[in-house]
């Protein structure tokens, strides 16, 4: 392999590793998302939960926090596996493909468990509270998209 091709390959691998690291950093170490903050503020301040509801929701949140942390650690491991596969294969080979599939599986599991967590909390609410909760969830999942600028 010529010196120029080696340099190009090294640059490509470095770029992909940086891209993967940036994604991992944002996914794992990002501050709490605004939608989560809004939802927790709604639950704890605006819905006037009774003592039984508050206790049930607290228990649900504690269980989810443990599971979420486990999934975050699994995501970190999946990203490390992806980085190792990229370094070993220097291309889009079978190990990189498997690592990407594993990363997507973990991300999907996180999304599913987050939704199960939301529905578990919703089940504790009275109908009027659930309507406010639903509105906040919908707002969080579908933020306004700015219109494209006129050319």
Which SSEs are present, and which pair or pack?
Elements: H1 3-29, H2 34-46, H3 51-89, H4 94-124, H5 127-141
Describe the protein.
There is one protein chain. The relative contact order is 0.12. By secondary structure, this protein is mainly α. The termini are far apart. It has helices spanning 3-29, 34-46, 51-89, 94-124, 127-141. It is elongated and about 70 Å long.
Descriptive labels:
elongated, Four Helix Bundle (Hemerythrin (Met), subunit A), 151 residues, 83% helix, mainly alpha, 0% strand
The total count of strands amounts to 0
Structural class: mainly alpha
The percent range for helix content is over 70%
Number of helices: 5
Main beta sheet, described?
none
The CATH first-level class of the domain at 3-30 and 48-124 comes to Mainly Alpha
- Order of helical and strand elements: HHHHH
Low-pLDDT stretches are 31-35
Strand content: under 5%
Could you tell me the CATH topology label of the domain at 3-30 and 48-124: Four Helix Bundle (Hemerythrin (Met), subunit A)
Which radius of gyration do the C-alpha atoms yield?
21 Å
Name the shape in a single word: elongated
**N→C terminal distance:** 47 Å
The CATH architecture of the domain at 3-30 and 48-124: Up-down Bundle
Residue-averaged pLDDT, rounded?
79
């Amino acid at each position: 392999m010529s010196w120029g091709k080696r340099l190009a390959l090294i640059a490509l691998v470095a770029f992909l590793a940086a891209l993967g690291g940036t994604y991992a950093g944002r996914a794992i170490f990002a501050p709490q998302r605004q939608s989560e903050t809004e939802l927790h503020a709604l639950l704890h301040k605006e819905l006037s939960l009774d003592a039984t509801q508050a206790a049930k929701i607290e228990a649900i949140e504690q269980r989810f926090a443990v599971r979420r942390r486990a999934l975050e650690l699994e995501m970190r491991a999946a990203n490390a596996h992806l980085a190792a596969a990229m370094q070993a294969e220097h291309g889009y080979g079978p190990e990189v493909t498997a690592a990407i599939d594993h990363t997507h599986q973990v991300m999907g599991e996180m999304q599913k468990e987050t939704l199960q967590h939301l529905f578990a909390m919703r089940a504790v609410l009275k109908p009027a509270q659930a309507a406010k909760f639903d509105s906040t969830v919908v707002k969080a999942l579908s933020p306004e998209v700015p219109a494209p600028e006129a050319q």
